[in-house]
Design brief:
mainly beta; 11 strands
Length: 119
């Protein structure tokens, strides 16, 4: 079993910054991608940013240029640096860990951390 724990969400003013952290532990064997997704009230969960075991990252158009995802492979950790935050960034942010073993894929999620952007 894999435990995924997010931390450091919170309340920030428009234009401010937050840094989210995600740590995976437990049955870790081959993480090929870690990422952040978010879900606003009444909306579907959407991709924010993902990064593979190297440095290749993908971002949603809405956050590109404002958010940066980092990964520390040796520690099974990923960080999302969020700058120039907007009211539309308010959501619960979830960390996702994807593993592959031979032909099988495994996906684990954290409980989520709230990000609120106020005027």
């Amino acid at each position: 079993q894999v435990q995924v724990v997010e931390s450091w969400g919170g309340l920030v003013h428009i234009g401010g910054s937050l840094r989210l952290s995600c740590a995976a532990s437990g049955s870790i064997f081959a993480i090929y991608e870690m990422g952040w997704y978010r879900q606003a009230p009444g909306m579907q969960r959407e991709l924010v940013a993902v990064i593979n075991s190297g440095v290749l990252a993908r971002y949603a158009d809405s956050v590109r240029g404002r958010f940066t995802i980092y990964r520390v492979n040796a520690k099974n950790m990923a960080t999302l640096q969020m700058d120039s935050l907007k009211p539309d960034d308010k959501a619960v942010y979830f960390c996702n860990v994807e593993q592959r073993l031979e032909e099988n894929e495994y996906s684990d999620w954290g409980q989520g951390t709230q990000v609120t952007v106020s005027s």
